[in-house]
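Field: COMPLEX_INPUT
Field: COMPONENT_COUNT = two
Field: RESIDUE_TOTAL = 785
Field: MODE = joint
Values follow.
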Amino acid sequence: MVITETIAVAMSGGVDSSTVAAMLRAEGREVIGLTMQLWNQRRLAGHAGMPESVRGRCCSIDDVYDARRVAETLGIPYYVVNHEERFEREVVRPFVEEYLAGRTPIPCSLCNNHLKFDQLLVVAQQIGADKIATGHYAQIAFDEHLGRWLLKRPADRSKDQTYFLFGLTQEQLSRTLFPLGGMTKPEVRELARQHKLVIAEKPDSQEICFVPGGDYKRFLEAYLAEQGDRPADIGGEMVTTDGKVIGEHAGVHNFTVGQRKGLGVATGSPLYVIQIKNETRQVIVGKDEELYCRTLTARRVNLISCAELREPMRVAVKIRHKHQPASAMIESAGSDEVRVIFDEPQRALTPGQAAVFYDGDVVVGGGWIESAQP
Amino acid sequence: MRHVYLDNNATTPLLTEVLEAMLPYYGEHFGNASSIHHHGQETRGAVERARESVAALVGCRASEIVFTSGGTEADNLAIFGVTKAGDHIITSTIEHHAVLNACKNLAAKGCEVTYVPVDACGLIDPADVKRAIRPNTKLISIMLANNETGVVQSLAEMAKIAHETDVYFHTDAVQAAGKISLNVMQMGCDLLTISGHKIHGPQGVGALYVRKGTGLDPMLYGGSHERSRRAGTENVPGIVGLGKAAQLAAAGLEKGSDAKMAETRDRLEKELLQIEDTGLNGEGVPRVPNTTNIYFDGIDGEALVIALDLKGLAVSTGAACSSGAIEPSHVLTAMGLQQDRAKASIRFSLGKQNTQEDVDFALSIIPETVARLRSLSPVYGRARSSGLRASSVGRTPKMADHAIREAENSK
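Field: COMPLEX_OUTPUT
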């Protein structure tokens, strides 16, 4: 089969995307390497509490250098395209606003929806590439019977990134390749070594790319200070589930549902954050048992394996990235809303996170957790 | 795939004669130009002949030429060489970063800097320079030709102001050398920068003209090279290359190479401006004959450069920088262009090696590529229907008369 498509590979300078570029090149395809410059790592460096050093951050100057070296080794054209403005507007700002509203955001999903599989696809088309390929651990396949593009879990379950990809549309899926979907991480590294890529031994980057060291609170403070946007009075009350005020807090963004540490209140038994009420700036705390809920409402739902949910469906649902999918029934609750009713109560359903529905390996779809009911 | 290079303001290919002149100095003539023995005498001779060629290009004495590692070093040497803490410097908002960042550094060390603005066409008003002069003004640095737009300033009046007020006058002539005639006496400047790789010479070498009698502190200490103005063993092959390039540049100008270049550039420009929703940055003002900077509304300049590169045509968006930097061109911004239009601007710059066929090739792929990018852009369709032309032109307070007239006419 003659493959004439030109593929733009999203290169982060890491092992996964570098290996994808090498694999596609080895297949004889026309490959173009692209790195999206999304966040200036030096921007908040040294600000109020932020580390001075910017080494080791995803997509830092070092990573661009690595990606460029890999591209040169493979003999493919390589470009850096700047989309900092859109990234800040569609990922960073919402991230900050979600925390200030008492929710726990997932910036990686927003980045996937708006940058990696939207902006990058546009750029790829503009420069003459038919499709994009990334180093995500996931699989895409076209189902003739359903007439739809399907997103599936990868061979290496421990690296499964489908949780962050629930927002992909049919159009996006039709133009995307995930060449690593059938491989394990060790296999990928080995392949990188075989291709003699300089980054073969580079450690994986696990954190949110614009939050160095994972300390999102420090980032929020520094970003708000830089923007001159820090709300004046954001503190409020710590309240028990039966309405008793037992303490104060310095801002709802310091908490997430299920959190036990850092509550600043000491009672006899362990207390957990049960709910965050942004309108009254209250953080509701209670016992572990109170964290369990059976129902959740997901909004802005994107369906992949089917066009609509005409009748209730049995699926397995993940409510956060590190969560065992739990058996549940999902049913349509509005034009883009889905109600999820778990067989067993689940712990710490967190507004702002995503609920992603699986039918075996197939991603049925997913939405953003709006609220939970016992 | 055919490759056409239209980014000569970023760098130029060596002319054959330049490479041929340099090669022996990478081979058998390797001596240190300061050595006493014949190896040194040989290369010393070559360096001094090159110096004479460079001096002839700018109309000065050979002893007034200091060889450096390039335009950036020469700019830095001029700026740091005549100033000290407490001095005031006048420069412009459109200078190359070598000048801007050197001035920024001076400001951090106790100097004051005034940045005179440009009008919508990229011209500086000498009256602004005059108004900025203070008792402690030590240096005025204004570039002769801008690297992004090619716009040429009329420096004579500004140099006159400098001399009347006993202020040094420096000009970064990197983009002007070889394209227009230079004469430091006529221009009235005390310091002038040129760069080898912009005149079909090698990278890594440049020169600073330093008028006799100018008190210049060196930046590099060591041996007494360059009359103790710039220490370091001479880059003989580089200097020889610069000398040869200077000689060829002068000869070319004498034969009218600039007029011929302008013709070729004008044809490219005229055809490109036929494309809808385009315009010239630097319209109606003097420019060097090889440069045209055109905006293509509704597209992302970065994407256009990449798309053209993949088709074999090399151009750029303003200054050369590969890190994906976010700031739109400071030059276009200083001229009052809105961000979208600044980001949609492409610089085409010809070199001696470019032919009519090169222009034909460019014209065969640019329009269709622009059209494709526009068809893929959700922004372009919307902007067109809401009156693109009127809305996206931004103006600075200072406007040249013809620019005002043009704006009135287009309403």
